[in-house]
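Hey,

Quick one before I head out. I ran the complex with coenzyme A overnight. Inputs first:
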Amino acid sequence: MRILESDRLILRKFTGDDWQNLYEYLSNEAVVRYEPYPAFTEEECRREAERRSEQDAFWAVCLKENNKLIGNVYLQQQEPKEFLTWEIGYVFNPAYYGKGYAAESCRKMVEYAFEQLNARRIVAMCNPENAASWKLLERLKMRREGHLRKNIYFKRDRHGNPIWADTYEYAILAEEWFEHDYILRTSKG
Ligand SMILES: CC(C)(COP(=O)(O)OP(=O)(O)OC[C@H]1O[C@@H](n2cnc3c(N)ncnc32)[C@H](O)[C@@H]1OP(=O)(O)O)[C@@H](O)C(=O)NCCC(=O)NCCS
């Protein structure tokens, strides 16, 4: 079974039984505010846990101390495949924000992509209003490469008009990561 481990976390494949933990955070409007989908119902979480268990892009992030599923990381190869580019994304249960868990799990995913999947470039997108998200990307030493103006919408207003949103684009190259990782490893002695 596919498992990754960091100091405090286990990253593993989803199972159908994870739906209740998913429901704890995907049912929360504030959590999905910048996501391309509305809050989930219980039934949708049951289906979503099954769907995630059948594909490779979603990783469940669990606390080592008690196996509690506290969020998910998404890692998906982009087309065309020969560009060796992966996109990373993340959504966590707010009860576990502010403890560095998202950063710790994303760091592990980035390391996995560069070291095991032969990724050349990792990218991420977020809404500039979502400061928690771009701060996390900057903690991972990703570089802001673009600010796209009103390029996308996920939601509509009460009149049915699109709510256009800006996008920050972030990226990091394998050589930058290994250089950074090298510095971290050597600074720890
Ligand atoms: C984006 C999201 C995952 C960020 O979560 P987070 O907990 O703030 O992120 P981190 O894991 O990087 O934690 C950083 C915070 O933990 C604190 N922290 C505490 N202990 C820490 C530790 N041991 N190591 C690192 N940071 C630690 C940091 O100081 C920082 O606090 P600050 O925000 O007050 O500066 C979360 O807000 C979320 O799930 N949002 C909803 C979904 C979403 O918008 N996803 C992104 C769509 S693009």
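The chain has a mean pLDDT of 95.

Talk tomorrow,
K.
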